[in-house]
Amino acid sequence: MTETESDAPTSPNGLHAAGIVGAAALLRLAALPAELYHRRHQRRYAAAVREAQQTQTLLRKQFGHQDASTLGQTYRTLRQVALTRRGSSTLRALLPWGRLASVPLFLGAAWTLRRLCQAGQVSGGVPGTWIVDLLDPDPLYVLPVVNVAWLLWNIERSGPAATSAPPPPATVIAAANPLERWLQWTQMPRFQDGLKVALQGSLLLVAPGVLTLPSALTLFWFSNTAWMALQRRLLRRWDAAATWRERTAPDMSTAGGAGLQRDLQVAWLRAQDDLQLAQQTIAAVLGNRPPAPSVLPAVRRELDALRASGRLQLPLRVELREDASGRYIAVELDPMVRPRPPHA
Known about the structure:
Number of strands: 2
Mean pLDDT: 76
Number of helices: 12
Radius of gyration: 31 Å
Number of domains: 2
Largest sheet: 2 strands, antiparallel
Distance between the termini: 76 Å
């Protein structure tokens, strides 16, 4: 206990032990919406990643081997489509919103409580225990030791959440933008293990200073840790129930297995029909003429007309190419245009 705290007059109407425990509970409640937000988007991200990886596996069986660049682009596109359909994003899922909200709240509350201790606005002890004055350090050092040991145990047990997605391929991480690459890297086991060691080492370094803190602060720390443990237990059950509901929802029933394979086969057949129609249109426009830049506008007009009528669903575009065999008109997907939804 510092000289300022020992000399400060104690107010009989100051903050008591029950108020400190209640303040810790209110702190956890204040951070709960951010934690729920994070976990909800974690589940959506995990489901999107599983769907993207499963879809990519089926596509590779259909089209064969893909190089690293194509593999990464295909995965990111599939994952982004799945995330958009679920109303989520990589940033929403991977940023630890719960910790970003709770850490400033905890530090602010601890700083305020320390100022109250210095001003003598904390009174009484912990009923039924050896702590008779919350302004004094714990005479038996039980609360500081239990706090440090409990926090070390929580850090050791902390790991990927139950809703975490499987890690993406290394080629996907390497090809992502810097922010997404950093966020995905923080989810890797190597980073998580290094973070555990760093946090545990830092805690052991400051542990001796914890022994001299006023009992009010160690009680607040202990209460916050206890409420946090209870909150995590309840959230795990909430996660399990929410995950079960999302996986059994009707609109998610085709996210895997035979349903997804059937959808891919239907889409593949429609794509084949569209490509055949586009080739027939090109042949009709060309007639007996060789491919030349002058015929491209006519081909594009015909394809636009087919797309406007609904007969062509894929956003196809044509370009004039040349190789060893001569000039030809290439048909490819336009990535800047969304496909037209199929007619019932």
